[in-house]
Design goal:
504 residues; alpha/beta; Rossmann fold; 3 domains; six-stranded mixed beta sheet
Length: 504
């Protein structure tokens, strides 16, 4: 059932996008109440507006701290039109019905970002705005509330196509969005006063996805993808795309200070190929060579500008998503030849302060896993060579981005074998050796990274027999010495980092 809007209250900080709304309200013959700057804005459009002060009989006081907090305003918003007592009291106290509330909030977060002046920040804590938004949202049966300029186009469409009326479903949807706005606002204020930068995903924009991990699952994304990326081509990112893109961005962020170009291939949130080289094409070739079989349909990410030669090579294989800071014009044309391929120009490195996971009937929250190693303890028979050290650091980063249990085999800053997501560390190692053999890599003088300690010396024995000469692992087992002794007896290098990188 549609409900005609007869009176509206407008009080907004941001005026952009408001003008067509005001004109439509006027066209529909809707009475407009307003305050302060919004009132001035409407009057300059040549449209009649009733000051809230005229309604309440009370001026704006305390420098604007108190303007709308009055029974004649909130009564008009909150009164239930189908309640006889409410209707009688509205008549008794001469309270006019207010059917539409358009209110946004003082820019608290923007002020916190741009100022350290506590007085200025405090003054940007809105009181009347959230109160009116909550009141109107609570009474969605009778009142429509718009709490964000992002919803102005939708409101305008509804007003113009429905002759100034809204449906119950529309009012309820607007109310849900309004409560979300208030929640985010309150969270920001709470975070400021607690002096912690806790940013929950639910503070951000909500975007419905086509489906979740599987077609029968519904899914939404909270966040703004326009901040880290500019999408240059392709369809909308799916749930699984986003999971892999996140893994890709977290990985490439590890190489922000690299003097070489790093290219990586992500599949099911795991690294299946990665290499570091002086040129983009060489890096791509080496990354693909690490596991060309698993690479099919994966997500590509690099810290270098994709040139024409690399784009031509990429175009020979099916890949869903390609992420890079820049593309040559001709390279972009080549990659855009595939209709649904998603091309993302990375604008910034998304670095959330917290990682979250739903479990049981609650939420697990932790800091992000920062760093590569906390110490560099040479524990083997010899010191690592400069080349081995480079490879070990590279391998340890890769291992950090593989699902546990994880083993990464690296040679000349190229991933040549990996085992991930195994229930046994020995299985992970065997799988990594098998992968290396599958693509004809020589493991002689390769290095090995493990995401956790070796509880026995079996892994170093198997790896040594395969040709591996240097190891990096966090240590921490009561039997660390078993693996160390084997290295001492066989002339092998071993580094203990003191930092574990489980990724369950």
């Amino acid at each position: 059932m549609q409900k005609k809007i007869n009176a509206a209250l407008l009080s907004v900080f941001y005026k952009n996008g408001l003008e067509p709304i005001v004109h439509e309200l006027h066209k529909q013959g809707i009475t407009i109440y307003s305050t302060g700057g919004t009132q001035d804005f409407i009057e300059k459009l040549g449209i009649k507006v009733i000051p809230v002060e005229s309604l309440t009989g009370f001026p704006s006081i305390f420098g604007g701290r108190v303007k709308t907090l009055h029974p004649l305003v909130f009564g008009g918003i909150l009164a239930k039109r189908d309640d006889e007592q409410h209707v009688a009291e509205m008549k008794q106290f001469q309270i006019p019905e207010i059917d539409l509330v358009i209110v946004d909030l003082y820019p608290f977060e923007e002020t916190v970002k741009n100022s350290t002046d506590e007085k200025a920040i405090i003054e940007k804590i809105d009181v009347g705005g959230p109160s009116m938004i909550r009141a109107a949202a609570k009474n969605f049966n009778d009142c429509t509330v718009v709490a964000s300029k992002n919803d102005y186009p939708l409101l305008l469409e509804i007003l113009s196509t429905q002759n100034g009326a809204t449906t119950l479903l529309q009012r309820k949807q607007f109310a849900i969005k309004a409560f979300d706005v208030c929640t985010a606002y309150d969270n920001a204020i709470s975070a400021y006063f607690n002096s912690i930068a806790i940013e929950t995903p639910f503070n951000k924009e909500k975007k419905s996805l086509r489906y979740g991990e599987n077609p029968h699952q519904k899914a939404v994304f909270y966040g703004n993808l326009n901040e880290p990326f500019k999408q240059l081509h392709g369809k909308e990112l799916s749930y699984n795309n986003l999971a892999d893109v996140d893994a890709a961005c977290n990985l490439i962020a590890e190489f922000k200070d690299s003097k070489e170009i790093v290219f990586a291939i992500i599949k099911h949130s795991n690294v299946c190929g990665i290499a570091s080289r002086e040129t983009i094409k060489a890096s791509w070739d080496a990354a693909l060579a690490g596991d060309p079989e698993s690479a099919f349909g994966g997500v590509l990410v690099t810290n270098g500008k994709i040139d024409t030669a690399t784009a031509t090579a990429i175009n020979e294989i099916f890949f869903e998503v390609i992420i890079a800071p820049a593309f040559e014009d001709e390279a972009l044309k080549i990659l855009q030849s595939k209709k649904n391929r998603i091309l993302l120009q990375q604008l910034a490195q998304p670095k959330p302060a917290l990682q979250m996971k739903t479990i049981l009937n609650g939420l697990l929250i932790q800091d992000t896993d920062e760093g590569n190693y906390s110490e560099w303890k040479e524990s083997g028979a010899r010191q690592t060579t400069p080349e081995e050290k480079e490879d070990l650091i590279f391998a340890n980063i890769i291992c950090k981005h593989l699902k546990s249990n994880a083993i990464a085999l690296v040679k000349n800053k190229q991933l040549i074998g990996k085992g991930c997501g195994q229930t046994s560390r020995i299985d992970a190692l065997r799988h990594s050796i098998e992968k290396a053999g599958q693509f004809k890599f020589d493991l002689h003088n390769a290095v090995l990274a493990s995401d956790a300690f070796f509880p026995f010396d079996d892994c170093v024995k198997i790896a040594h027999h395969a040709g591996i000469t240097a190891f990096i692992q966090p240590g921490g087992s009561i039997r660390d010495q078993d693996s160390i002794n084997y290295c001492l007896q066989n002339g092998l290098a071993m580094v203990i980092t003191g930092m574990r990188h489980f990724k369950h």
